[in-house]
Amino acid sequence: MDAAPPLAFALDELRAYLAEIFPRAWSAGAHEIEAIGPLAARVRLNFHADHLRPGGTVSGPAMFALADIALYVAILAQIGRAPLAVTTNLSINFLRKPAPGDLVAEARLMKLGKRLAVGEVAIRPADSAELVAHAVGTYSLSAAR
């Protein structure tokens, strides 16, 4: 099995880079990068009432965005400054209705090639091991990296 390439960023460097390229999104404080590692990342959705849908559960769009962000973070942690890494496909299965509260997404890259990255994301409540959503996504990577 091939070893994962070294990380391109330290955690604080990656946080600063994302705040630089997406200032409005990261200044809002809805998402927080908790950890990065070889081919992996953990991102938290900091709960806000705006994330609720009728019925009092965290909305699908909030979980979908969390999955997409977690994959992007895992990819950038490996490849470095590449703002043109873009989602080409993301499929999500909603398994349970999460109660209002923080959610944590754990992303794992299954393939990191020259042009494509493929990964999966497990989403759980911050205070539980119960899986509430599972996503699989593909990103197109810029040839100029």
Number of domains: 1
Helix content range of the residues, please?
10-25%
Count up the helices.
Answer: 3
Taken as a percent bin, the fraction of beta residues is 35-45%
| Low-confidence parts | none
Question: What's the β-strand tally?
Answer: 8
* Outline type: globular
Which value, in Å, is the CA radius of gyration?
Answer: 15 Å
What is the topology, as strand order, of the major beta sheet? Answer: 1-2-6-7-8-5
Instruction: Determine the mean pLDDT.
Output: 91
CATH architecture: Roll
Q: What order do the helices and strands follow?
A: HHEEEEHEEEE
Major sheet: size, sense and barrel closure? 6 strands, antiparallel
User: Alpha-carbon distance between the termini?
Assistant: 24 Å
CATH topology: Thiol Ester Dehydrase, Chain A
Q: Which CATH class is shown?
A: Alpha Beta
Q: Write out the CATH superfamily name.
A: Hotdog Thioesterase
Q: Helices and strands: which structural class?
A: alpha+beta
